[in-house]
């Protein structure tokens, strides 16, 4: 476990790749510290890796697309964070009963925001995948996020990703318009 909560402010070597970090803002209304080198996944790759129609609208990835961050924002009915977390877990379990769940917890951030997290192991065609999912409330709805990577590098990434989750900040919305959800666009 990483002891220094500010570790994402320095360069990190994971499997011979040096990662630098920066705060990135996403519309409508949140920012998070992520690796600088992660970029928007190409649309054709998104369709191949996430073939279902309701895929997350923001997908950032390393160069070889094996390590990914996914974000989506949804307009939801008010409900306790823990209840929503249980519904997400139940949906993941229903999609694939062989998924192995590890932990579930809520992190209270310094800014007062609560983030509910759960992690699990899933199987892909050629590899086991570690998934760390999280949800929190935005002023515009709910932020759903997920990190995934090959299970064999999970140990190097998990504590680091939990530090990134702790960096989430809610940004003010100035235009007063109602949130209608993200639309996936390839940026960068």
Write a structural description.
The structure is a single chain. The protein has 188 residues and is of the alpha+beta class. The protein has a single domain, classed as Mog1/PsbP, alpha/beta/alpha sandwich (Protein Transport Mog1p, Chain A, 3-Layer(aba) Sandwich), CATH 3.40.1000. Helices cover 18% and strands 39% of the residues. The chain has helices at residues 43-49, 81-95, 154-165; strands at 12-14, 17-19, 21-26, 30-35, 39-40, 58-61, 68-74, 100-108, 114-123, 128-138, 141-150, 169-170. The strands form three sheets. The protein has a seven-stranded antiparallel sheet, with helices on both faces. β3 and β4 form a beta hairpin. The radius of gyration is 16 Å and the shape is globular.
